[in-house]
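Quick check before the chapter quiz. The format below is the same one you will see on the exam, so make sure you can read both the input and the output lines.
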Amino acid sequence: MRLGATPLTSAQDVLESYGLSAAEAVEPELGATAARVLERVREGAAGADELARATGLAAGEVAVALTELELVSAVREEDGVYRAAR
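Here is the expected output.
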């Protein structure tokens, strides 16, 4: 390291070096059905059928809710299983 160099070990360090701070995370506004599905997904990863059974919603309602959640990056799907993204 050069004399006087400051090590940057994270994105936060870079922001601080420029006198900036990270933006606060904003929770997206969700419909009641999407919020219900997200609450269940946060309890643990699940497939669409399991989410329908656990929430008591029709398969079509779960599909719409999952699409809404994917569009706002609240869930992600991998191999048919949905997981909370944050």
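If your answer matched, good. The chain has a mean pLDDT of 90.
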